[in-house]
Amino acid sequence: MDLAYIPSPSSGAIHLGPLPLRGYALCIILGVFVAVWYGNKRWIARGGTAGTVADIAVWAVPFGLVGGRLYHVITDYQLYFSDGKNWVDAFKIWEGGLGIWGAISLGAVGAWIGCRRRGIPLPAWADALAPGIAFAQAIGRWGNWFNQELYGKPTDLPWALEISEGPNRVAGTYHPTFLYESLWCVAVALLVIWADRRFKLGHGRAFALYVAGYCAGRAWIEYLRVDEAHEVLGLRLNVWTALIVFVLAVVYIVVSARLRPGREEIVEPGAPGAGDGTAADGDGSADSGTDAASGDGAADDEDGAGGGAGDGKSGTGNRGAAAEAGTQP
Q1: In 3-state terms, what secondary structure has residue 202?
Q2: What predicted TM-score, i.e. pTM, was given to this entire model?
């Protein structure tokens, strides 16, 4: 008998009177909100205009949801198109099933469209949003907890996840891989925030660091999972995907740093203060003319992770310094 374990919810929905609110959908919505909110703070600190991140997210989020669902359906087609299955279930996104690889890929297409319409460089926008995306993934993974899905191998560890009997699952206690990935994503977000402050990452390198960091964790977490998946040379498809994308992200960081060192001085042409050497942080203050590293800048404001982690940063350049404030399958 297990003395301790993480209980699973008896239902995947939260009922608000007569209205059911799907836990999975709620986690996705909260994650998107956090990503846009925190990305907006970072964008303003870089010299951009308030609301620009949300305007581009209007393009990126729908594309990302479609891409995430397409990746899941294509790579797990047997769940919807094999004998005895109903292909209509492929459209029931609230029941779970979003592939992060497809969500990021097609979401990037939507973001590119939005950035192009606003005359904004996509890499700069992606850098501002990177830690927010990681925080969003950390929140979104709790949707798997509501659905009792994507858990790992059986275990009797104190933090084991209790799974009840149901379709395609056997009652028992398992590794809570959703929790492992959620915590890993928080760590990746904090890593990006620190590295961005320390090294002043630009031209898409903060986003590439997020991608590399996420892939490093996804590879070993995926190895623990026991849900049905396609394999190549004895490894799950998502493990191979994580390894390949990790290498590509690292190569991008190295090559980009050599070809385009430093950070963009202007991220949004025409924005108030663009190019005049100042940018307001989350408290409305401004720094200019100095290069402050982590811990010794007057604009340093850091609250931590999850509930709105923040970081303050002042950048260098002829145009002055920018103060910056700042948590899938």
Answers
A1: coil
A2: 0.78
Match 């994503």 to its residue by tokens. 185
pLDDT tens-digit map of 127-177 = 999 999 999 999 999 999 998 888 999 999 999 999 998 887 899 999 999
User: Which residues of the chain are modeled with pLDDT < 70?
Assistant: 1-3, 273-329
The C-alpha angle 82, 87, 88, rounded to 5 degrees, equals 160
Radius of gyration of the chain (CA): 21
Q: Which two tokens stand for residue 107?
A: 């979401």
Residue 15's H or E segment, with its range, is strand 13-16
Which DSSP category does 279 fall into?
-
Helix (H, G, I), strand (E, B) or coil at 204: coil
- Helix segments in 141-261, DSSP class H: 142-147, 177-199, 205-224, 237-259
Q: Supply the pLDDT for residue 232.
A: 87
Q: Which two tokens stand for residue 169?
A: 């699952």
Q: Comparing C-alpha atoms, which of 319, 185, 194 is closest to residue 263? A: 319
Q: Which residues lie below 8 Å from residue 78, measured CB to CB, with a gap of 6+?
A: 85, 228
Helices (H), 46-84: 52-75, 78-81
Tally of CB atoms within 10 A around 78:
11
Output the pLDDT for position 102: 92
What is the C-alpha separation between 148 and 188, in angstroms, rounded?
25
CA distance 283 to 326: 10
